[in-house]
Amino acid sequence: AGVAVVPVVLRVHNQTHWFYLALVVLRFLLKLRLVAFDKTGTITRGEFMVTDFQSLTDDISLNTLLYWVSSIESKSSHPMAAALIDYGCLHAIEPKPENVEDFQNFPGEGIFGKIDGKEIYIGNRRIAVRAGSGAALTREVNIMGGKTTGFIYFGSTHIGIFSLSDACRSGAMEAIEELKSLGIKTIMLTGDCHAAAMLVQDQLRDAFDEVRAELLPVEKARIIEDLKERGPVAMIGDGINDAPALATADIGISMGISGSALAMETGHVILMSNNIQKIPEAVRLAKRTHRKLV
Ligand code: ADP
Ligand code: MG
């Protein structure tokens, strides 16, 4: 009866081997030393709102820029994409994904697409390098005051900037504090900028033991690999960018309602309700179950 406790809280992914997997999960939950959380869509709701959107050149109108951005973002499943498309709609801009060619997604960085014959990059600081512009963006980032900031490039020319806000999930702080009271360390791993990561950490009253920002998907996985030397590690994430880290962790947990298909396939366990308070609950249940079994 004990092992059935785990699938009640979290659905074990592989149905055929669920009993075996539930045992493995139970074993790891008992020994868990550290839980790593992705930020966007995991700690935060992933429901962005555009708070600022500017064209940086006189030759390109705001509406043209919005049309390019919302059309290219229509091809992306990132939570930021929906916000930018909505923002376009507010300005009566209808996205035309059918006009976008050569779309590419760079997880942890941003996206690329050709529209009206123009090569457009949209994303964070790393996309600037990919666009062929090494220019320092510190001034622009500071203007945006700790929000998630996006940059738009036409070739290597910086043509636009925008910022978005997102809210923490309710119960995020409680989940982290509960894990702490169970003797488990917590760390936040994000592909977003330092300022945005620290804004979340402030809102959670410094709940995380450690915060690491501006990470590429492989860097998240490498950090998990290093952390595993200290004991079993769980990783919780929702995005395509989290897949390598979810696969590397002893227990990879993906968000069930809003998670990307890849994260759900890669995770060992799916958090059905998106409620991260279920994680300390699972640890507590595992401990209680173990006491009953032995
Ligand atoms: P997190 O690790 O917090 O979930 P991601 O790795 O998904 O964040 O994304 C990291 C950063 O990459 C985002 O903050 C954003 O700047 C950029 N990015 C990713 N996808 C897109 C997109 N479709 N449009 C614009 N920027 C993007
Ligand atoms: Mg995410």
TrEMBL record:
Annotated compartments: Membrane
Residues spanning the membrane: 18-36
Recorded superkingdom: Eukaryota
Family: Belongs to the cation transport ATPase (P-type) (TC 3.A.3) family. Type IB subfamily.
Protein name: P-type ATPase A domain-containing protein
Lineage: Eukaryota, Viridiplantae, Streptophyta, Embryophyta, Tracheophyta
Span of the entire protein shown here: 263 to 556 of 749
